[in-house]
Task: structure prediction
Amino acid sequence: MDKTLLSFGHGYSARALSRILLPQGWRVIGTTRSEEKAPGLMTEGIEPRIWPGADMGPALDAATHLLISAAPDDAGDPVLAQLHDAIAARAGQFAWVGYLSTTGVYGDHGGDWVDEATPLTPATKRGIARVEAEAAWAAIPALPLHIFRLAGIYGPGRGPFSKVRNGTARRIIKPGQLFSRTHVADIARVLAASIARPNPGAVYNVCDDDPAPPEDVIAYAAELLGVPVPPAEDFATAEMTPMARSFYAESKKVRNNRIKEELSVELLYPDYRSGLKALLAQEIGA
Result:
């Protein structure tokens, strides 16, 4: 059977998944809000759709799989806001639907461990919106939904090296602060493994094995580059934007056992050290 992925909000993680699927003969249709981004998607083998705007009926008719990367806004989930009924009417045609959420749905746990069964107690506006979006997708009858709660994403073009090089990286110290993170290549491998082994209703945390203080990541990046480690700044007195400060509102360690046990995923980058080493090697070799 021909396989067609319709990807709403075809961004960083979705493009990484496409690099796995396209060589396997998949057709990938990806939406973007920007006409300027469409040619770039085409060069990667993606069929772009400018949306909102384009009539998505034909693409939905063709889709065997759906991936939703578009983030909720003040009006809720943007895909469901416009296409809820169209998707619900086709629920039985899809073999797999993936929704990319965030570990922010768990809220603050004071550095303790969380897993997929942990109650959702988001502490930020973004986290609350994600909980609501997850529930809205899950409420569509017969939709083979899989929810992926992603930790902080890094990878090619999205890592600490540029800020360390140009001197804008900051080591904000908040005692006990821990973040989980994940390399985009591992996100793509988890999604591909789930597509190959659907389990409708499943929820997966997608992160590495090594929750770590953010200042340690910056320090290691500086060491790899052979530049001075940025000075420590006390979170309590550091000048930060409200957005930047909000990232420190939550501290937790995220368990990833389920992606290993159910999907048999072996992480390419089980910790930030291996991930940053590989990123730097890619940059140098580019």
